[in-house]
Design brief:
Layout lengths: L3 H7 L6 H15 L4 H15 L4 E2 L7 H7 L15 H8 L13 H4 L3 E2 L6 H11 L13 H15 L2 H6 L3 H9 L6 H15 L9 E3 L8 E2 L5 E3 L2 E3 L1 H10 L7 E3 L2 E5 L5 E5 L13
Parallel strand pairs: 3-9
Antiparallel strand pairs: 1-2, 3-4, 5-6, 7-8, 8-9
Helix pairs in contact: 1-2, 1-11, 2-8, 2-12, 3-10, 3-11, 7-8, 10-11
Amino acid sequence: MITSDLIRKLSPKHPNPQAAADALSKAAVRFGITDPESVAAWVANLAIESNLTPCRENLYYTDAARARRIFSALRAYPDSAFVRNPEGMANIVYANRLGNGNVRSGDGWRYRGAGMIQTTGKANFERTGDLIGLDLVARPELLEQIGPAALAAAAYWTRMSSGDQLARAGDIRGTRRAVNGPAMLHADEMLAAYAKALPLVQAAPSQPGQVKLVPAGGGEPVTWNGQTVKYGGTLLTPALVEQLRTVYPPGSPRASYERLFVYHRSNGDLVLERQPVTPSSIPARPQ
């Protein structure tokens, strides 16, 4: 559903479309973003927020009057406090909001918009970190990495906003409010991106094939019996298999999910194989 071609369509100058497609596909499986309308609206909103590239919010302003029109909190401060001073501006406009401390705390700058969906504010960094299993309060810079940024975007879309629910109900314009707030900035551009994305994420209907597991050490794949089992370090459940089948449609390139390789053959068979265990894939023992 999410391919490098889709990334290039929405972000022609993207530095690594395949890495973005892989990271977003994994995040989609983990958080159950499988409805084509939801996938298309999700990536369309991410294209508006960040061009599908992890980044930090740009708060460099040279026009004080324009900045004050956008951020009313600046009206109490002289130009020198925020003009050509992004850190000063962030600490003012985000002070005492979204779980942040006061201006002097530095929270506004530390927890300014980050990632693909521009997670903002200490409370949202904390909630997102809980959902994706990373301490984003202690290490907000993790959202500058493509894997955590994709997971954060999926967590927000499905668990912290109504984005997924609205998209499934057909309210695509409403998803812009879910992501951007009442201002709904660039809603028309998001809808245009959605129109480009939807045909690319809609997989051609096909008859589901069998699910086959490659034995340890290789050999001819054997048919999975449908029972929950630990396979290659991944808990294989019927729900997960259905998500893998949907996110990686028939004929898609080999994909990597957790410690598995995923092949969805053109005939509909879904083949799963353990990835080789290497020293780099073994978690380091705590010191």
